Amino acid sequence: MTMSDFWWQRDDLAYVDGDLTFAGRSVQALAESHGTPLYLYNAHRLKDNLERLHGALDARGLRHRVFYAMKSNRFAPLLTYLKTLGRCGIDSCSPGEMNLAQQCGFLPEEISYTGTSLSTSDYGTLARNPGVRLNVDSLTAIRRIGEMCPGRRIGLRINPALGIGYESNELLRYAGERTTKFGIYREQFGDALALARSYGLEIAGIHLHTGCGYLSKQLPAWKTILKGALWFIDRIPDIEYVNVGGGLGIPLVEDDSALDLGEWSGVLAEVFDRRGFEIWVEPGDYIAKDAGVLVLQANSVERKRDTVFVGVDGGFNIHIEPVVYNLPIEPAPCRWRADVDVETVTVAGNINEAMDLIAQNVKLPLPVEGDYVAFLNAGGYGAAMSSNHCMRGQFTEMLLL
Length: 401
Known about the structure:
- It is a single chain.
- With about 400 residues, the protein is of the alpha/beta class.
- It has two domains: about 150 residues, Beta Barrel (Lyase, Ornithine Decarboxylase, Chain A, domain 1); about 240 residues, Alanine racemase (TIM Barrel, Alpha-Beta Barrel), CATH 3.20.20.
- It contains eleven helices and 19 strands.
- Strands 4, 13, 14, 15, 16, 17, 18 and 19 form an eight-stranded mixed β-sheet that branches.
- α3 links the parallel β5 and β6.
- The chain is elongated and about 70 Å long.
């Protein structure tokens, strides 16, 4: 294996004279300066991802709005940077997220709120923010919003009973054969419309989000889902928008085929041809995931029976996806050494739980104690889902401009 063999290299993420560079900076030098665990985010990659999405929708002549799903990454400098671009709003799913978005400069009308199992306090916060674009996902939510805010404009979150996600990963599907807590099903939809009318609620659009991480080969399933949404759309006169949620994926391993945005936007154009409403999209991972890396330091390298374990100074509590969602994460040495053998290793975190295996059976130039290892595609659902389990929740985040 040589430096050029890595499938993930691109202009802003590559080896230069044996040094892993990200956003034009040496990852090794940043780790030495700021310590680990260290999350690094590339502002220019965020912008490029966002512009690529706009470009695909513009090319199809689709009127649209993009709302960045901040549950993917809520680092305040990152949110503020997105606000300065002026190219997206915010998709929020809790009062805390909604408030943080406003603290970072987003106006209420630039925020879409889609929550579930809301509390009385949640409803109170929404009532105090009438400009926020609200999607409700149950008969209970319709009733409680109606009681508190009669006449408010809302969207209805639907459940088309079809799911999509990375590969065949059921953990990433929000809809499907198994009944889920999200959205309003067909058999409830008539009751939902009648209940909304009884409170004078104006239904401006519908919302659907059925899974995460889909790539090009899942686009036929995506088309079937959108066609299923037409049943709901046709029952709302003068609908203003259809929010198709997020879930757009990125390649996580070498064999993944990237999502073809031209084909993706083509599906939207075909299914919703000339219907006149605006398309709303809520990408999180597509914007942030490959714009971030997590840097950890190897603190032990040891063979136990038939497995070489590389122990690092961070665990599943600061990047939970490999353990909870069975999603692969790609390790890369921060400094390339041609004289080191490539071995199959398992990267183990520092949390005292058997599940704390960050990457299993991956090929890696064998580190030595003190080496830094970067874990790629860590910009989404990493720091945002962290905890202080075992009181090892400390890490640093940096936005690279």
